[in-house]
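Chapter review. Work through the record for Sporulation integral membrane protein YlbJ before attempting the end-of-chapter questions.
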Amino acid sequence: MSRIDLFRTFLYGVSATFIAICFMLFPKEAYEASSRGMTVWWEVVFPSLLPFFILSDFLIRFGVVSFIGTLFEPLMRPLFRVPGSGGFVWAMGLASGFPSGAKYTTRLWEEGHITKIEGERLVSFSNASNPLFIFGAIAVGFFQNAALGLLLATAHYAGNLIVGLIMRFHGSKLDETTTNQNKSISMKKAIKKMHKDRMKQHEPLGKMMGDAVQSSIHTLLMIGGFMIFFAVLNQILEMIHFSLVFQFIISIILNWMEMPKELSPGIIAGLFEITIGSQRISDVYQASLLQQAVITSFILAFNGFSVQAQVASILAKTNIRFLPFFVARCLHGCISAILTLILFQPLYTDRILDSTLPASQQPRNEESLQAFLVHMYEWLTTYGSTITLVCLSAWIVLSLTKKLN
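Structure tokens for Sporulation integral membrane protein YlbJ:
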């Protein structure tokens, strides 16, 4: 046993013991923090992610991902140096939110669609916040400003695209892919590839459905555990004033950027958990809306240690390294913050001024989409807990029935 391994074991043991003691010293605060984390997972995360997880499992098993991969190969390979199937992961990751991109990337690696280096590139830009969260929770729920949603979403997704273009250079010397790739779209070849992958599945439909549900719920339970743990950890660190040192450092950086130091507690909270950090940033009345938007955009793109821990847990069963993902998150945070600063005038200020125009000149399609996303988020917060309860109850019954049989 090396000294490094021995020191790491000692560090893990001391850290876990210290956190456990803090939990016992502050049971009330720990309970309240765990309740907040549980509520977000119970009402929003579980019901919004479960359908995407189950659907993606079916799409992979039925060969649809191979079909999409063959069609998107001429696009994804030159731009991001990943297979065409990465287009499926990217789209599903943007639609369903983090840590979906990591789950789908892992699945493609298990199916042999991507290599280690390609997986590290793909996971770096396929994890993003979903539109429901940006428009519903952040813009409307925290800032009470629906118009801010377009600015945050544009900066977030554009930053994600730029990160993907940057990460294409990752692992160039270790790239295992061949240079002879498809340069044209072939529908016939895509259909044949889909059929070939589907024929590999010999399990009956009922068994595939059961496996998809089991895998999806297991992943969601893991996500819920991380959300609750980091919500409690963030609260405990505040109770013991451990975060004051980091707040002092961040305050110096904020002073250099000519931003109020009152933003530092929200930034610290956001580094651990996105929801808590964004909410606290929205409550800082000493900061302007532009300053709040820039910091919130950084927090959204950084993902927070909670989401990063979820990604690390998902990637642990593969040879895909976590470090490139972390570097990409730091890049994404900085790029999104800069884009928010640049786009604030055209995408927010000018749109607010344009809102005084007659109704016939308003951008109906944009407003309708924004209203739909906000409505969907409000619907989830109202009925999401019921959906989660029904799904978990059905899962428990099916699991017990399967074991008894």
